[in-house]
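Researcher: Batch entry, complex prediction.
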Amino acid sequence: MIDEQLIRETVKDIQDPELKKSLLELGMIRDISVADGKVTLTLALTTSKCPKKEAMVTEIRRVLEELSGISRVDVKLTTLNQEELRQLFPKHPLVGLEKVRHVLAVASGKGGVGKTTIAVNVALALAEKGNRVGLLDADVYGPSLPVMLGLNEPPVWENQMMIPAEKFGLKIMSLGMLTEKNQSIIWRGPLVSRAINQLLGQVLWGDLDFLVVDLPPGTGDPSITIAKSIPQANVLMVTTPQEVALADVRRAIDLFRKFDMRIVGLVENMSYFFCGHTEKPIEIFGHGGGVKLSEEYGLPLLGEIPIDVEIGKGGDSGVPLMASVPDSETGRIFQGIAKKVMEGSRDH
Ligand SMILES: Nc1ncnc2c1ncn2[C@@H]1O[C@H](COP(=O)(O)OP(=O)(O)O)[C@@H](O)[C@H]1O
Ligand SMILES: [Mg+2]
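Model: C-alpha cells for the complex:
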C-alpha cells in the first residue's frame, strides 16, 4: 500500500547536493500526497536559481518510480521564504565564503599588466580541471569583468541575497554590477568596505572549490581593506618583465605578507612575442623580471604568458582565450598555472 509514510521512507536519503543533508529532514520536501498511483510533492529550494534543482527532481522521480504501483510523480518547485531560511539556518549556508575552499586573489603592483586577463583565464582553467569556480571582480579602480565577459545584466536579488551571474561555467560578481550602468563611482574607504563586504557576505557563492578575486592594483586603501576582509586568501602576483613594474610588485608582496596572506606564486605576463617570421621569441618588454623576483622572494614562477593576439581579441569580444582556444599554446600555459595553483593553495 503506497501512502505518505512510504513516500517519506523512499525519499529520505536524498540529499541537497550543496548542503549535504536530507531534503526531507530539512523540510524541503513537503506537501506529499498520493492518490491512484499518482504522487504529488513540493520541493522547496534555497534559491530558485539553484543549479542542482534538475538533479534533485530527477533523483526524487527515480526513487519513487521504482516503487511498484506508482504511475506518475509530480514535483512542484517553490523556494523557502525568508522566515524558513532563517529558521533552518542561522546564517544562510550558501551565502558568503563558508563553503568556499580556496580563495585565490589575483594581484599586481600596478594597473594594465593583465591582472584581469589572468584572473579570468586562470578561473576558466581551474573550472576546466573540474573545480567549481567563482570569479569576483573587486577592482575598485576599474571593474572590467562585465565588459571582458560580456555581462550586461544587473545581479538578481532574492531574499536579500545576490545571485551571481553565470557564464562559461563560472559564478561571477563584479563591483561594476553594483553600480548603475556607465556610472563611475569614486570608491572611498567606507564605501569600499561596504561594497566588498556585500560582495563577500551577501552573495550566494555556494559550494566552490575556488573563488578567484580580481584585486585592485597597488597597495592603496582598497587593497588593504580587501586584504583584511579575506584572510587566508592565496595570492597570485602578476608582473611584467620590465624593471619599473617590479618596485610596485615588491611593495604589494610586502603588503600581503604583512597581512599574512600566502603568495602561491608569480605569473609574468607579456613575457615575449612570436611574430611568426622567426622561430625565436621576441622579448618586447625586456627579460627576466619574473625570474628575478622569484629568486629574490623565494616564490615560484608559475608561468610566463606571451603577448597573444587571441588575448587581446578575447578582451574585446567577451569571449576569453580559455573559452575560445583552451588548447592553444597560451591556453596550455594557463592550464599549467591552474595546476600549480591547485597544488599550492591552502584551504580558506
Ligand atoms: N598576454 C597578453 N597578450 C595580449 N594582450 C594582453 C595580454 N595581457 C593583457 N592584454 C591586454 O591588455 C589590456 C590590459 O589587460 P587587463 O587584464 O585589463 O589588465 P589589468 O587588469 O591589470 O588592468 C587588455 O586589453 C588585455 O586584453
Ligand atoms: Mg583589471
